[in-house]
Amino acid sequence: MQVIETLAEGLKRELKVVIPAKDMEARMNERLAETKDKVRINGFRPGKVPVAHLKKMYGKSIMAELVNELVREKPTEILSGRGEKSATQPEVAMTEDEAEAEKILSAEADFEFTLAYEVIPAITLKDTSGIKVTREVVEIDESEVTEQILKIAESARTYETKKGKAANGDRVTIDYLGKVDGEAFDGGKDSDAELILGSNRFIPGFEEQLVGLKAGDEKVITVTFPAEYPAANLAGKEATFDISVKDVASAAAVEINDELATKLGLESADKLKEIVRGQIESQYGSMTRQKVKRQILDQLDELYQFDTPQRLVDAEFENIWRQINTDLQQAGKTFADEDTTEDEARVEYRKLAERRVRLGLVLSEIGEKAGVQVTDDEMQRSLYEQLRQFPGQEKEIIDYFQKTPGAAASLRAPLFEEKVVDHLLAEISVTDKTVTKEELMNDDEDDTSASKKAAPKKKAAKAEAAEGEEAAPKKKAASKKKAADEADAE
């Protein structure tokens, strides 16, 4: 077998691979010899079929199998021999001329194919001891724990029907019918909807107009959907709602005690406080880690500058671009709404893709040299988290990860990256700084993954509708079980 390099330009490589016809024929004869004792052909005793007859009957099909095997196996062997790693699966090309293919299958011509690929650049690791980061830490006040418990306790709060007018904090039970230009719209109707006045769960201006109503009252209210409302057919439109009040109930006082904890599925108030505090610590800890990780990535970005495999960049850019356009579409926006143009956005997100790929390669090299490993147990836990997010679809998800090439790698990559960050945190200079939660949350952009995220200078296409808004107001009464689940630590 001959391997001839026909292109070495930057990271691009092209190789011409030639396997002589005589070698192909020898391989075919070996395969025929193995087949001789297995085939059954009328007129011949087992094992006595002449090789020439076998070759006539099966020669070309065996040669086709050999060609497929060589194309599948040789690229890895060749690259390993050259000490190279391909950034993506090498592209294999061979003759499409039927006459030439016929000669190859008949062992009358050499089998030739080409490999085109980009090599992963050699990365010389640099000293990271000079990297310095500030780890922002929030001290959690007892009042914040109490506030969070009271929010969780809303689902366990009891209400008693009262006489008189509804006030903020009261629960009203209503029937409503929404109309635009006098016509009812889809999703704008509900019966026995329960709404806590002042919760801001419905569109702006809706709840305020229910204050002062009492059971038995009927009223038509007028509201305007936000201009950036997710449902394009309602965005910015004025709507009326026919309201019928069926019940007004006032909330009983909530006390943080063992009785409340029991309602939430826990054994004591102390346990409730412990779990809620742990949740808050976890939330702030996640934000802290994001900001620390961003600092590390930004400094690695300054330390390492090298050409990146364009095929990897292309693939990463396509992922980013697809998400950006999906976000724009869902928000009903254009690039002009984000003070940019499509061409400018392409340039920006292309740079982002290059950064992600480069930092991903750097972290991979650091992790490999440090012996970072992702265990089977960690992979199983990650898969379990995926299953938790899609109840009822467990079988489909498991089948996907078992049958889809590269799917397991998508689970492993973020786990590996986080472990590399842990490794770096043990080597770099980390200074703790106590901050308020407002300071911690300031400028908290979601740009922390080198393989999937990096700090973009602009943010395109984010839906700005308030959380929880629907095409029309809907009841959202949480169950006690849900409250207990929310209180339970992850």
TrEMBL record:
PROSITE patterns: FKBP_PPIASE. The keyword Transmembrane does not apply. Pfam families: FKBP_C (PF00254), Trigger_C (PF05698), Trigger_N (PF05697). It catalyses: [protein]-peptidylproline (omega=180) = [protein]-peptidylproline (omega=0). GO terms for biological process: 'de novo' cotranslational protein folding; cell division; protein transport; protein unfolding. It comes from the Bacteria. Residues 169-270 form the PPIase FKBP-type domain. GO terms for molecular function: peptidyl-prolyl cis-trans isomerase activity; protein folding chaperone; ribosome binding. Its EC number is 5.2.1.8. GO terms for cellular component: cytoplasm. It is an enzyme of class 5 (isomerase). It is found in: Cytoplasm. Belongs to the FKBP-type PPIase family. Tig subfamily. Consists of 3 domains; the N-terminus binds the ribosome, the middle domain has PPIase activity, while the C-terminus has intrinsic chaperone activity on its own. Involved in protein export. Acts as a chaperone by maintaining the newly synthesized protein in an open conformation. Functions as a peptidyl-prolyl cis-trans isomerase. This is Trigger factor. It comes from Pararhizobium antarcticum.
